[in-house]
Amino acid sequence: MIGNQYARVVAIAVLERTKDSNLRVIDIALQLCNSAFIPCDSSYEVAVANRLVSEWRGFRKPLRLRAGDALLPDFLLTDTAQKQRSRCMG
Predict the structure, then answer these.
(1) Count of structural domains, the chain
(2) Best CA proximity match to 59, nearest among 71, 74, 70
């Protein structure tokens, strides 16, 4: 997704200064984000996040499971009436 105008890749780097006062990268982490810097796990999530933003939808992007959760949703819509949880048969 690097170079894609609808996505961003955020880099966090740990640097150290050398004896010659140059900087050396010790460690680096990259995070794929949509055009509004919302973290995403795939190019498909980037497309959905961009669509939600462009349509002014209210949503949250969960980044970790909560106690009792079986799945981590990609996004949680916050601009709709909340429905009762139903059990999946299976």
Answers:
(1) 1
(2) 74
Q: How far apart (Å, rounded) are the C-alpha atoms in residues 70 and 83?
A: 18
Report how far apart the first and last C-alpha atoms of the chain are (Å, whole number): 36
83 within domain boundaries: no
For residue range 38-90, list pLDDT tens digits in order.
Answer: 999 999 999 999 999 999 999 999 988 888 888 888 999 999 887 655 454 44
Q: Report pTM.
A: 0.73
Q: Which of 33, 32, 13 has its CA nearest to residue 24?
A: 13
Domain holding 55, by residue range, is 7-77
